[in-house]
Design goal:
By secondary structure, the chain is α/β, with parallel strands linked by helices. Helix 1 crosses helix 5, helix 2 packs parallel to helix 3 and helix 6 packs across helix 7. The longest helix has 20 residues. The N and C termini lie far apart (52 Å). The protein is built from 8 helices and 12 strands. About 4% of the residues have low confidence. It has a 5-stranded parallel β-sheet with strand order 2-1-3-4-5, sandwiched between helices. It is elongated, with a radius of gyration of 18 Å.
Length: 238
């Protein structure tokens, strides 16, 4: 059986279309038609990924996303939004969604997005029987063990979404390089968001809240005005 996908969508035609295409792609699909049912299903079934509509009866997608993250459930979330819900898309990302797509969309593109998200955690699933990778990334008070999906700051395990974790690993591996927002979109998200680099800014903000003592004067992730970001070895005197 393939990876388990939970689709939470109240429009029957879209739900049926997504379920059909995901099953054809080899996924096991569970469905829910309102936010309360979706939240309960996510907690009970622990799917590998959730496709979550923003506008839902009972609980909207934002509330579902918030409820999962508050319970430290870090299942990847692909949020579906209408084109005119721009503010809500950013808010959804701020609350812990990993990605979003706007309606109308191609079912093929949804499947491709889901596969791209799942590929980023596949290495973790494939490990173990023959031993765990010993790779460690250390920068200042940060310690990252990529193959175990673990990151520590001052010896405290960080609660990171899959997207935040991947972004942090990429930044640390490219320490000292100035990275544009477009470069980060291409490397971490694996596709282009034309003119939508705010996704990068939202995730950088999340990371800073977790690894910077003063987010207004960051010592790890520096903003390079007009260009992007750079990960630096922290100067303890800053």
């Amino acid at each position: 059986m393939g990876k388990k996908i939970l689709v939470v969508e109240d429009e029957h035609s879209i739900l049926t279309l997504l379920q059909y295409n995901l099953e054809q792609a080899g996924f096991e699909v569970k469905t829910a038609t309102d936010g309360e049912e979706g939240l309960q299903a996510a907690i009970a079934d622990q799917p590998d990924l959730i496709v979550l509509d923003l506008m839902l009866p009972k609980l909207d997608g934002i509330e579902v996303c918030k409820g999962l993250r508050q319970q430290k459930i870090m299942i990847p979330i692909l949020m579906l939004t209408a084109k005119d819900e721009e503010f809500d898309k950013v808010l959804g990302l701020e609350l812990g969604a990993d990605d979003y797509m706007t309606k109308p969309f191609s079912p093929r593109e949804v499947v491709a997005r889901i596969k791209a998200i799942l590929r980023r955690t596949q290495v973790i699933d494939d490990l173990d029987e023959n031993g765990v990778s010993t790779e460690k990334l250390i920068l200042g008070e940060l310690k990252i063990i990529p193959q175990q999906f673990e990151a520590y700051y001052e010896n405290q395990l960080l609660e990171l979404t899959p997207k935040e974790f991947e972004l942090l690993v990429f930044l640390v591996r490219n320490k000292g390089r100035v990275l544009t927002r477009d470069q980060l979109l291409s490397a971490v998200w694996n596709y282009d968001f034309v003119g939508d680099t705010r996704i990068v800014d939202v995730h950088i903000s999340h990371l800073r809240e977790k690894i910077e003592k003063n987010t207004k004067k960051p010592i790890y992730i520096k903003t390079i005005r007009g260009i992007g970001y750079k990960m630096e070895t922290p100067n303890i005197n800053e």
